[in-house]
Please model this.
Amino acid sequence: MIGISESQNLRIPEHIAIIMDGNGRWAQRHGFSRTAGHKKGAEALQRLVRLVSETGVRYLTVFGFSSENWSRPEAEVKELMKLLRYYLRSETAELHKSNIRLRVIGDRSAFDADIVQLIHNAEKLTAGNKGITVIMALNYGGKFDIAQAARRLAAQAVETGFVPSTQEVLHQFDAHLMTSGVPDPDLLIRTSGEQRISNFLLWQCAYAEFFFTETLWPDFDRSDLDEALSAYARRERRFGAVLRSSSEG
Ligand code: IPE
Ligand code: IPE
Ligand code: MG
Model:
């Protein structure tokens, strides 16, 4: 196991994305309600932000609520909204004190007005911070993100009367995604043993390294992060090319 302090010598990802999964199963295993699992999950996130900010990682994107999670029982969705509200209220000042920048991606128009306001306030307060950027994906869907980017480009084309070439669209697309200005994730972690992307950062994960762990999200700790970071450091990223060391001549 490589301690985070030693991880300075490792190749560190610039951007880590996490699908924080397994709150419900954690609760079930401990005989608690799903809500209790989500509370533990939120605490795990709080701890993780501190840990990750010590590693030199610049961006951390976490999947907090997917565009499909509305299909859960109403009571569970309500509890998740309560939790979101609670943390936005209680954590924003703490994040700011730690020089952390908070950004939210996702369709926020579906949230209650007070939550929209809290998100806006948190983003505004922390906008100038130079430490790690924490990006919360809330009511986020990768397909929605791509669709809204396409729509914006289409609107531009109508306005200017000019249809860009596919190459030009490829070139401009990142700037229209909700993650504009943020480099693509280098490492995508999913907890709880599931091995799927569940409509997370579809476009942005084109070349992400995937790390799956059986650990349920509320139990995700320093040793799990270390494990993910050392696995990442051992990966050979090729981006479709042939590495110079293995090419002939
Ligand atoms: C992840 O945990 C949190 C959210 C999706 C909000 P789950 O609630 O999906 O936990 P499991 O998958 O049921 O164990
Ligand atoms: C993905 O987890 C969304 C979040 C972690 C917020 P889900 O638990 O909703 O995903 P599925 O339903 O197992 O694919
Ligand atoms: Mg789940």
